Amino acid sequence: MKLVVVSAGLSVPSSTRLLADRLAAAVGRQTPVDVQVVELRDLAVEIAHNFTNGFPGKALAAAIDAVTGADGLIVVTPVFSASYSGLFKSFFDVLGVSDKDALAGTPVLIAATGGTARHSLVLEHALRPLFAYLRAVVVPTGVYAASEDWGAEGLDGRIERAAGELAGLMTGLSAARPVRNDLEVVPFAQQLAALSGPSGA
């Protein structure tokens, strides 16, 4: 299976890329995957040109193909002004313009990095709605890493939990669980007999 990691980190080294790599490694421990990383920093100029001329450059087109062909996505952005970065949003704007259903049904793990824990809600008020709009399937656990989280207890647990959820969606484990048939119709007389107990009681 193909796992594509989209990192919007700007610096080298980048805490955003570090979190992305740790998440990808955790998914790899759950299920065999081929990992491809898309560094948006390297695509910034082509993304800007795409907005003005309507055509993706060679590297941007390859990145779009990788993302749209993935069995699962990990997307990680630094937090700017209490939301995702402009570069991150621009990439997914370009992708949505090229094909509004490009991510429909694709499992996505959302993650973000920031200087303070006060921005942790960015996952719920910005990232989750963005990917819901793109009709992706976002795993329940998002991962936010503030500066103080690195090396602290708790981050590893969140990474493993989110990775397990993504791996489960990618491998279809949820489909393998027994499904209760809530639509089965039970005749009223049978339900009434079950309530009244054995006859003569």
Automatic annotation (TrEMBL):
Q: Which InterPro entries match?
A: CE1759_FMN_reduct (IPR023932), Flavoprotein-like_sf (IPR029039), FMN_Rdtase-like_dom (IPR005025), NAD(P)H-dep_FMN_reductase (IPR051814)
Q: Specify the domain of life of the species encoding this protein.
A: Bacteria
Q: What class of enzyme is it?
A: oxidoreductase
Q: NADPH-dependent FMN reductase-like domain: from which residue to which, for each copy? A: 1-150
SUPFAM superfamilies from the xrefs?
Answer: Flavoproteins (SSF52218)
Keywords in alphabetical order: Flavoprotein, FMN, Oxidoreductase
Q: What single Pfam family name could you report for this chain, choosing any that match? A: FMN_red
EC number(s) on file: 1.5.1.-
What GO molecular function terms would the record report?
oxidoreductase activity
What protein am I looking at?
A: FMN reductase
List the source organism.
Answer: Streptomyces cellulosae
